[in-house]
Specification:
Elements (H helix, E strand, L loop, with lengths): L3 E2 L10 H13 L9 H21 L6 E4 L2 H14 L5 E5 L4 H12 L3 E5 L9 H7 L5 E6 L11 H11 L2 E5 L11 H4 L3 E5 L10 E5 L14 H4 L7 H10 L6 H18 L3 E3 L10 E6 L4 H10 L2 E2 L15 H5 L4 H5 L1 E5 L6 H20 L2 H11 L1
Parallel strand pairs: 1-11, 3-4, 3-5, 5-6, 6-7
Antiparallel strand pairs: 2-8, 7-8, 9-10, 10-12
Amino acid sequence: MRHSYFDYNATAPVAPEVLRTLAESLGDVYGNASSIHYFGQMARQRVEAARRQLARRLDCAAQEIVFTSGGTEADNLALFGAARVRPGIHIVTSSIEHPAILSACGRLERDGVRVTYIAPGPNGVVPVDAIQAALGASPCLVSIMHANNETGVVQPIKEIAAVTRAAGALLHVDGVQAAGKLPFSLQALGVDLYSLSGHKFGAPKGVGALYVRKGVAIDPLFYGGRHERERRAGTENVPGIIALGCAAELDYDAARIAGLRDRLEAGILTRVPASTVNGGHAQRLPNTTNIRFAGVEGEAMTIALDLRGFAVSSGSACSSGAVEPSHVLLAMGLRPDEARSSVRFSLGPGNTVEEVDELIEATAECAGHLRRISATWRLEEEAAHA
């Protein structure tokens, strides 16, 4: 059986050119980037070259890039790092953030930090005026994701940045899903802190970065050495960083991928009655659609499609195995049963028209089968025809 991958938001395959660069660096660039001899300095040169590559992609200064182990560490460094140097800080975030943000905020709340959670509208967009209303006289840090990992809904970051700047607040953006998929400039957005993770756009797992705007003070999470300008202690993951720099220069054919996403979406909505796109009326990532199938359990659909050779997701990969419905979809106003009936399809450069058409057919067949054996669906149909 041929297997087709439609779960790019969980992780993307390592791009072929990145894999070649990674293999070369693992074999040849083995020096410690802090050593002063030839091998160490060769490693240092490659790390700084990768820093410049990533800075060019993000439109920022290379000195503003801090390499981390991934998005979770970058998020935690932003929140804890900013909070520790600003006594009495008030954090404003949204109720649809990734667990890397929500769990960190929960820890900060237990430490006495005040956190305000803003609910999104039904379309998944966090209202800018609600963020503005939450800002007060105390030092504030606003943390809002650039694009949602489950629905793909893109937040109005530039407008939020204007509000936070006017109020003298810091703005952190979790850009893990947006980096490499959306064209943007950090300078134009006007953010203070921005997190990303390499494995979402063609680099291997285990490497990411945090943009820290010049002049923004943060405390480190780790102590031990003076690496990364004393903002992240620990020997650098040189091969991973080199690979991240290579991935930062990849072209992402957003138009082609968006076309495949739209074809998939239209095909499923046509073939499967009582199906709805969650967040479909908002701006979204070009690769993501989250579809609700009335009367069908999302986990059951995910398993059924996997048995047919299609990898999709019923929620965040970081919440796999959870029995609770998606906190993102609940915050958007869906009932628990509606949230449990939703499946995320996330596409990438490796997908083809043929795969999309096969997935449409498989989804229609799986939905039909699961509804035939669903007591919930039978009750809904009986109620509709009563």
